[in-house]
Amino acid sequence: IMEVVYVCEWEKRPKNNHCPSIPLVCAWSCRNLIAFTTDLKNEEDDKGKRSPYTIDDVKLSHMIHIIDTEHPWDVYSINSGHREVISCLEWDQSGSRLLSADGDGEIKCWAMKEHLVNSWESIQSSSVDGDPIVALSWLHNGVKLALHVEKSGSTNFGEKFSRVKFSPSLTLFGGKPMEGWLAVTVSGLVTVSLLKPNGALLSASESLCRLRGRVALADIAFTGGGNIVVAATDGSSSSPVQFYKVCVSVVNEKCRIDTELLPSLFMRCTTDPVRRDKYPAVTHLKFLTRENSEQVLLCASSQMGSIVECWSLRKEGLPVNNIFQHRSPVVGEKQPMILKWRILSATNDLDRVSAVALPKLPISISNTDLKVASDTKFCPGLGKCFFFTVTNQSVTKKSQIIIIEVQLCFFSLFFFYSCPQLHMIRVSPSMGQMLDMNTLLRHLLFLLEYCMVTGYDWWDVLLHVQPGMVHNLVEKLHEEYMRQNQALQQVLATRIVAVKASLCKLSSATAARANDFHAKLLLIAISSTLKSLLRPHVLNTPDKSPGDRLAEICTKNTDTDIDKVMINLKTEEFVLDGPPLQSLQQLIQWVGDFVLYLLANLPNQGSIVRPGFGFLRDGPSLGMLREMMVMIRIWGLLKPGCLPIYTATSDNQDSMSLLFRLLTKLWLCSRDESHPQEPDETLLDECCLLPSQLLVPSMDWLPINDGVITKIQSKHQLRLQFGKPYTLPGLNPNSQMEIFSRSPASQRMDNLRCLHMGICPTEESKACTRCGCVTMLRSPNKTNAMKQWEQRWIKNCLCGGLWRKIPNT
């Protein structure tokens, strides 16, 4: 069922090779960022003095470490400044901010510095002096997407994934959700901090109930009506597990908290005479999901074993006394209802449970949902949770370190072991069931579609894609996408290309297509940017924008003469000032070079490995290139300096006219995607002559991804070290991947600005955690047009991946 794919550990250990106790807290975000803490006790050195435990001269007391799962060695360690042991970590819904709380009641909010995953800073903090935090959560933003597994065979994304009516915990004027966080303290206090639009913090605290008592464990969930539910226990299995409703509001610029007691429960094991005293402590308390306050998981333990119970809150009719049963009912009268906790399931006696993992998918364990899981054999998110146990034998061994925290997301989980070692585990999608290939592909396709719609990272889904599955998954994903309505296709247009690119990197047979998909992302971005510069000549704009009219005219006009196509356009809509056009010349140059590269390589189309092959049958992309060639031709009349530069063998060669003519012929062959035609011999002959007429550029494709996802498709476990980059093994000279390799003397490219950075760039750079796209951290441009282009990618890469700072070459 489970298989370790990589282990990452610290390079150095103490001299005696003995690890101090490590109270670890871990959290995994929807963007596949992992945060964990280390708090190592001081140990005596050879001279009897106590010194802090350090790794590479970094004191690891009260430290927060953040990594992305694709580059686990690139750890960013934060000296948190917490005075006590960190007890809670919590990511926000976007995965870009992190909360940390400690045993002294201090809460800190961390955010990326310059939107880099390996650079963080504290931006806000709040405190409940001296009152340790036991539970922490961001307020809900009101966004909830339901997952309908029973409709996984439907062709409509709207039926598979539907938006659920769910109110935010607190709203601003106009219904916008207000940001903030909520925490529960050990003394039974609930504290709320609200982030005002001006950056100020609004805080308030209130007791959960009138009689405050000790809270050893707590968890937080949300209801569809905008309320918050807190579950709390004092740690004894003989005491009730209490539930409270918390309502947050803002009255006269002050935060107000109202609490209400909800039905409570006693664990069943305490009512069993055999087990009454066997499990004295409640060690785990979790709601199944943060949006499901009606299902809770409890674990009671002793030193030698544990038992896990799952409970559900249900509405039940209130029994009526016999005196009133013979009374004739009033018209419209309904039986009174009450809320009552009922046990759904319980385990047998287990070894001591050290951690409980619940999936990030919206799960439920009702009988209906479990039947759907059984029928579809789709286990993730339906009745699946993990209990990590430690055997009695290993507890007695001092050399063994108990697993402390586990998180689960789709098909993977991680845990910490030893000093500390991070273990990334691949979890079988079928949970041990034997599945045929079609069923497995359908499950993977369903989760990839869910990631596309929600924006969650699909890294852990890729863990289960074998190289032989890539082609089928890409084709099926495209088929499902084309069945959606036009509006949804526009929303998901770039995201599906990014998913395809990630899939194609997993197989050497499709690696070239991965480069094509990244080139397509850049092409779409440049096209939309250039079209956005166009302005209608008159203010009373018609229904269609100048960009839409350009696309319509270029689609209808199949003339191979670029000047004849220009005649049908309103050239006044293309009039722009000189500086914006000149500043965008590097993007325009990329378009011109790309067209020349594609046409020059058309005669070599038999080689599927060659990058650019995917564009030769892509009618929409060829049409997009054709539209941009027309735009660039018109702008060249206004500002000749913005035109792409070609090195021609003849002085009177009209390079753009030649390329447009050949591009149009190729576009006509693939315009009808259902009935594509082969290029005729005349077109192939003319393309063969291109290298003798124009100097064909060598396109700089994205570098080979230096992450681990392409290296863990096999069954071999990777051994990694924090702070030490993982070097990819040497490539086979005959490998199909060799065409993407770089020689040490090759020019480095800024893949977003389409600029050469030199052989040994001195500028600070950042790289995408997903695709490896590299760009300079600081902008060398002064013009507004290019700054606007750069601002589009300040938070995320073209593919939607996050940025990480990389060292100079």
Key features of this structure:
nucleus; six-stranded antiparallel β-sheet; 809 residues; WD40_repeat_dom_sf; alpha+beta; activator; repeat; elongated
Beta strand %: 25-35%
Radius of gyration: 30 Å
Main β-sheet description: 6 strands, antiparallel
What is the overall silhouette?
Answer: elongated
What is the average per-residue confidence, as pLDDT, rounded to a whole number? 83
Tally of separate helices: 18
Instruction: Tell me the structural class.
Output: alpha+beta
Kindly state the number of beta strands: 38
Helical content stands at: 10-25%
Poorly predicted sequence stretches spanning 5 or more consecutive residues? 14-21, 42-59, 390-408, 729-740
- Tell me the span between the first and last alpha carbons: 41 Å
Subunit structure: Component of the Mediator complex.
Domain Mediator of RNA polymerase II transcription subunit 16 central helical bridge: 447-635
Family: Belongs to the Mediator complex subunit 16 family.
InterPro entries: MED16_bridge (IPR048616), Mediator_Med16 (IPR048338), Mediator_Med16_C (IPR048339), Mediator_Med16_N (IPR021665), WD40/YVTN_repeat-like_dom_sf (IPR015943), WD40_repeat_dom_sf (IPR036322), WD40_rpt (IPR001680)
